[in-house]
Amino acid sequence: MSFRVLLIILLACTTMHSVYAQKKPFRFEIQLNPGINMSQIERTISPDSSEYTRGGIALTGRIIWHPDNELGLGIETGLLRLSTLRIFADNVIPDNSVIQLYAMPVLGVAEFNILGADVSGSVGAFNYNVFLGGSGLRATSNEWEIGFGVGIGKAWNIGYNVMLGADARYYRIPERDVTSYAASMRVQYNLQY
Questions:
Q1: Which 3 state secondary structure label does DSSP give 9?
Q2: Which residues neighbour 45 within 8 Å (Cβ) at sequence distance 6 or greater?
Q3: Which of 33, 34, 30, 32 shows the shortest CA–CA distance to 66?
Q4: Burial class (CB in 10 A: 0-12, 13-18, 19+), 79
Q5: pLDDT band for position 118 (cuts 50, 70, 90)
Q6: How many of the other CB atoms lie within 10 Å of CB of 142?
Q7: Rounded to an integer, what distance in angstroms lies between the CA atom of residue 46 and that of residue 87?
Q8: Which of 130, 173, 184, 186 could be a cystine partner for 147, CB 3.0 to 4.6 Å?
Q9: Which of 2, 20, 30, 36 is closest to 184 using CA atoms?
Q10: How many CB atoms lie within 10 A of CB 158?
C-alpha cells in the first residue's frame, strides 16, 4: 500500500514539474567577472633581492544555460594572476625584471540558485602562462592540470536583461598545490527564448 502511495506522489510531482518547466522560458546568461585574486603558491626561485606579490587581477567569463530557475550548466574561462615577482638584483636574471604567473581555467560549471544566491561548483583544467615584463616574452605551458572551483554570488536586475552583482570564488589546482581566492564584480546579460 505505501509503495503505491509513494508511486502516485512521485508521478504527480514529475507531471507538475514537466508542466511547470514547459511554461518557463529557457535562458542563457553571459557573465563577465573583473576582480582581484589572492593566491597561495610555492615559489621555486629565490633571487638575491626581490619583491613578491601573491595574486593580482582576475578576469573570468561564464556562459551558463538555465533550463529552469534553480539549475544552470555552462563553461568558464579567463585569466587569474597567481603571483608577481619583481627582481632588483640577481646574478642570473636581469635586474628590474618583472615575472608574472597566470593560470587560465577552462571549467565546466554547475550553478544552483539557493535562497536567492548563485552557488556554483566547477571542474576542469588549468594552463599556466608566464610573462616577463619589459621584454614582452611569454611562455605557455603545454600541459593542462586538473583543478576545481566553488563559488557564491548574487546579481540584481538593473533593466533590459542586464544584471550587476558580486562573486566570491575559490580555485584549487592540487597537482602543484595552488590555491586561489577571487573576489569580483559581476556584469551579466540574460538571453531568453
A1: helix
A2: 85, 93
A3: 30
A4: middle
A5: very high
A6: 6
A7: 9
A8: 173
A9: 36
A10: 12
Considering the chain, what percentage of its residues have pLDDT values greater than 90?
52
What is the 8-class DSSP label of residue 37? E
Highest mean pLDDT among 5-14, 18-27, 141-150: 141-150
Write down the pTM of the prediction: 0.79
Ordered by where they begin, the domains of the chain are 25-192 (2.40.160.20)
List the grid coordinates of 21. Answer: 518547466
For residues 182 and 35, the answer to whether their CB atoms sit within 8 Å is: yes
Task: pLDDT band for 11, please (50, 70, 90 cuts).
Answer: low
Alpha helices in the chain (DSSP H): 2-23
DSSP β-ladder status, 117-133 and 178-192: unpaired
Q: Which residue has the cell 544584471?
A: 163
**Can you read off the three cell numbers belonging to residue 169?**
570564488
Least confident of 102-111, 116-125, 130-139: 130-139
Question: What are 99's three cell numbers?
Answer: 615575472
Report how far residue 184's alpha carbon sits from residue 165's, in angstroms, rounded to the nearest whole number. 9
Q: Is the dihedral of CA 106, 107, 113, 117 positive or negative?
A: negative
**pLDDT for 51:** 80
What is the grid cell recorded at 127?
594552463
Rounded distance, CA 153 to CA 69, Å?
15
